[in-house]
Each structure stands twice: as structure tokens, then as C-alpha cells.
């Protein structure tokens, strides 16, 4: 039988595809990576605009407690010491997130953990909710009415495009409430952003691997099908099957980017807008991800992005899967169809798996697949 040119065709040059390609190459596998976008990197791709690194598809902060993944990414890039401290603004007042003693001081003027704890307990008791039937009841039963109305309600309704009373309670399983003055958004052991952005990480992973941009698998299916023994497919699984069983649903985003001729717009990387009257959920000021880069911080201009959640319509970017019952069943049906019709194709990454994965989980999943495919050990 004629040998195919590649062992693996990897569809999608995001973090999943790039990690898998790196590992395959280490094992002597011949790989080609294709992506329909004009660049490599998928959603972690960064632009450099006038000395400022811009997270093109939304802000990306690397955080993990997985030491294997942390050691792995540190082979390719140096991480800065960025720690996410988000600010929320509601009706002209500022609050720290995640909910902690700074937030409670700003909200109720309390200074001691026991005072804040007593207020939350009182509000939870007054709400008398035993079995929360929706997200509103769930949130109030966890953190009380003030925090819910000021910091959760408007933001969540914009994010999902529906009133909290119509959203399922299990979207919020728990809400982290800290009775300490710790503003660090994440609890993970390791956190940061690669100096200069994520392109160097992707470049390191894909070094020496053949890559093609502007190449959509769907449009070039017949030429691509025969070139590799196996395919790792990180695009949407429903699109692969031409939506034969129906469309998977997503929440999408619209980004509105501005280059302002001022040095400092908001003094922080992310400011959330939690009131319903403001149509966007947050403003990102990209230079603050690069806190230790004096040239970026002191640049006489700044780049900001307003983020507007929106419905997913054909042609829009599929950002967040909606893992409700309908979509979960539909995705399982697509996986069953794939097993039957294309057993040599692995559907993976956030789109193939139809799951929100943080970056560390994406890398860990790629490691697991590489291990399953050919016994790769990091
Ligand atoms: C707004 C937002 C913010 C986020 N912030 C964080 C964060 O702070 N921290 C964190 O850890 N994670 C964050 N994430 C998650 C992170 O983006 C993912 O973990 C990661 O990007 C997943 O990588 P992937 O390779 O699976 O998918 P992607 O990055 O989406 O890559 C898939 C690639 O496949 C390509 N593709 C699709 N279909 C085809 C086709 N038919 N032909 C060719 N190519 C195709 C796409 O163009 C894309 O480049 C965030 C996600 C979003 C949406």
C-alpha cells in the first residue's frame, strides 16, 4: 500500500493542535497543521500594535495548579508575574473581585470578616430559599441579595442574554467568597502571561512543523483526506458533518477595539461593568497585562477592547458552548456518528469536545491524546 505523506493532519493551530503537533514531532511523527484563519494560535493569538500586545480573541491569563503543564509551557516562554485583579464598576462605584473583604468594605463599610459574614448570613436567612429553582435564587442563597444585585445580576444577564430567573441554577455551582483581603482572581499555584504574548508559545510548539494558514478543511476536504493516516480535528464537530443532526449552540462575543491617544485609560487590565444599562460586560486595557514592560506601560497610546456578548449566528465565532441537555445529547450523537463513519478522526480541543477548557486543561487534554495515540510522556 502506498505510504501517505503524513502520519497526522492536524486541523486547527490553536493550543490543542499546536501541543499535539509538538508531541507528535518529538516522537518522530510527520505532521501537517492547517488553520482557516490568517494566523496560527487559535484564540490565544496576540497582535502587536505600536508596542502593545493585544489579546485579539479576549483576555487570556494562564493559571494552573498542574505542575506538569506549568513546567511544559515554561520550556518555551518566560512568564511575567501578572496576577488577575479584576475591578467591577456598578453605578459609578468600584468594587474588587472576586468577592472579598475589599468588596465588603466598599459595599457595607465593614472592616472585619465577622461583620461581613454576619451580613451575608442575615441576607441568606431573609431570602428563605431552600431549593433554588433558578440562577437568581441560587446566587442569593449563596451570597445574599446585595452582592447578587450589585455584582452578579446585570453581568450574568448580559453574558447569557436571558434574565437570571430563566437561567438554570446549576450554571453557578458555588461562588467563591473570601473573608480575606486577597484580590487574586484565581486560586491556582501558578499564574502569568508569556512575556510579549502567546505567539512565542505557539511558535515554540510548532517550530519545525509544516503549517498552512488560510486553509479551511471543509473547503479542501477531498485533497486533504488522503494525505495523512490520521486526522486530529479541533474545529466544530457539527460543521464537519454539515450539520446533519442539527446545530450545536454557542454564545458568541463581539469585540470593539479602540486605540486611544492617552497613556492610561482605566489603570487595570480588566474592568467589569455589572449594571444592565451598560451594553458591554467588560473593558480590557491590554497594556496592563504587561505590567513589567515599561515601554508598553509608558507608551503614549493605549488599546482598549469593549466586549459585547451576543447570540451565535452562522458566521459568528463560536466562543462558549451552551452545555444544556439538548446540546449535550446532540454532541454525544455526533461523537457516535464519528465513531461509525470516521473512526480515524479524533475530535478534540474546545470545539471538537464541545466544552469550555481553560488553557492548562487544553494542554493536558492534548497530552492525554498524545499518550493514547503513541504513548507520549512529557
Ligand atoms: C473570551 C475567552 C477568554 C478566555 N480566557 C482564558 C483565560 O483567561 N485563561 C485560560 O486558561 N483560558 C481562557 N480561555 C480558553 C482558551 O481560549 C482555550 O483553552 C484555548 O484557546 C483552546 O484551544 P483550542 O486549540 O482547543 O481551540 P482554538 O484556540 O479555538 O483553536 C481552534 C482552531 O481551529 C481552527 N479551525 C476551526 N475549524 C477549522 C476548519 N474547518 N479548518 C481549519 N481550521 C479550523 C480555528 O480557526 C482555530 O484557530 C478563554 C476563552 C475565551 C473564548
Polypeptide structure, described:
With about 375 residues, the protein is of the alpha/beta class. It folds into three domains: about 190 residues, NAD(P)-binding Rossmann-like Domain (Rossmann fold), CATH 3.40.50; about 80 residues, no CATH class; about 60 residues, no CATH class. It is about 35% helix and about 20% strand. Strands 7-6-12-13-14-11-15 form a seven-stranded mixed sheet. Strands 9-2-1-10-16 form a five-stranded parallel sheet. Helix 1 packs parallel to helix 13 and helix 5 runs antiparallel to helix 6. The radius of gyration is 22 Å and the shape is globular. It starts with 5 loop residues before the first strand and ends with a helix.
Overview in brief:
With 378 residues, the chain is α/β, with parallel strands linked by helices. It has 13 helices and 16 strands. Strand 1 (6-11), helix 1 and strand 2 form a beta-alpha-beta unit.
CATH architecture of the largest domain: 3-Layer(aba) Sandwich
Computed structural class: alpha/beta
CATH class of the largest domain: Alpha Beta
Relevant CATH superfamily of the largest domain: NAD(P)-binding Rossmann-like Domain
Query: Average pLDDT value?
Result: 95
Looking at the structure, what is the overall shape?
A: globular
